[in-house]
Write a structure and sequence with these properties.
Low-confidence stretches: none
Helix content: 55-70%
Order of helices and strands: HHHHHHHHHHHH
Distance between the termini: 36 Å
Largest sheet: none
Strand content: under 5%
Oligomer: single chain
Number of strands: 0
Mean pLDDT: 93
Structural class: mainly alpha
Amino acid sequence: VAGGRWSAAELEFAAAAAAHPDSALIGRALAASLPFLAVPKPALEAIRGEVDRWTPGSDVSSPLPESIRPLTGHLRLYLLGLLSVRLGAVADALRYAGEIQRLPAPPESGALVRDLERTIRADVAGATGRTAVGLALLDGVKGEVPFELIRLPYFSEEYARYLRALFLQRSGRNAEALRLAEVAFIGTPNELYCRAPVHLLRAEIQQRLKNRPAALEEYSRFVALWRACDPALRPVVERAKADLAAMAAEPR
């Protein structure tokens, strides 16, 4: 996933599912929902179908951690919402967000559940060109995650941070976007997944800010990390290479 190689990652998720069905399904769905991967539509539809049919906790041989069992219903709806956005099914995504809001949750997890809902709605807003609405929704996502859940990738709110950095960039708030992109993913559970896209985001921001050395470094790191990416992502890498070459050729 970190190398932009969904085709290879899908095989690994399938192998993991033989031993840990629930965990593999969650991991596969979470990875497929990432906006910077090129997951084929049939695969997205198949994964969403599996999550829709999933009964959390049914895998008695490899049970999910006790700390997340009260929130497995919310997690299922969250994954369904994000996958629906990737499929362009925004009405479905908003329906799942509403169901999260109505599903009872432990009092100590109330803020986390609210943030899952807001992240789906912000993702929908971004996908439909309403960046300001997405930012307003993400303003309320403040990392209020119970301590025992903070290291779980599906509850660590990395996705919301990535969306916020992206939306800030789209809004021309480059300095804010850069500050967030520089610190928001250090030591997070899925830091490796986000590393290449965040380097690309920082490269584009630094280029806008005319910080040529920093932009060159960020583009170089992105290209190196996705040098063996899937063919569907090659255009992204080629554009980065072209920007890198053009900047390198500029007079100092």
